[in-house]
Design brief:
It contains three helices and five strands, in the order αβββααββ. By secondary structure, it is an alpha+beta fold. The protein binds guanosine-5'-monophosphate and zinc ion (ZN). The site of zinc ion has 6 residues, from helix 1. GO terms for molecular function: catalytic activity.
């Protein structure tokens, strides 16, 4: 997707602070962190929301948990929150599937 900020980051057209990369995922530091550690695990294929996932991709994405474990160990965070937004009302700003990894402070209730 030519106008997608995350596709541009994946393609190296926009700079980012990368902490992990493999065939399916890239993990970068969020540009506007809400906590001392705020990372984005981005699925490399341009798929806007969970609702748009095909079986093949949702199967590939199960490896996300391995990616998160690896990154959590690397970043030395034991306690963290995963957030994933779908659609406007959820607060999704970038319509390209990604998972926030938030840590480093005591987090409040969801809502
Ligand atoms: P969403 O609201 O879609 O779940 O989250 C999008 C996240 O992407 C936001 O937390 C925002 O700060 C982050 N973001 C938006 N543009 C950029 C960018 O160009 N670089 C990086 N590293 N993060 C970005
Ligand atoms: Zn994209």
């Amino acid at each position: 997707m030519s106008d997608c900020v995350f596709c541009k980051i994946i393609a190296g057209q926009i700079p980012s602070e990368k902490v992990y990369e493999d065939e399916e995922f890239i993990v970068i530091k969020d540009i506007r962190p809400v906590a001392p550690t705020h990372l984005l695990a981005i699925y490399k294929k341009h798929i806007p929301t969970i609702n748009d996932l095909e079986l093949e991709d949702s199967q590939k994405m199960w490896r996300l948990f391995e990616v998160i474990k690896t990154v959590a160990k690397q970043q030395n965070i034991e306690s963290y929150r995963i957030v994933q937004n779908n659609g406007k009302d959820s607060g999704q700003e970038v319509p390209h599937i990604h998972f926030h990894i938030i840590a480093g402070r005591r987090l409040g209730a969801l809502g």
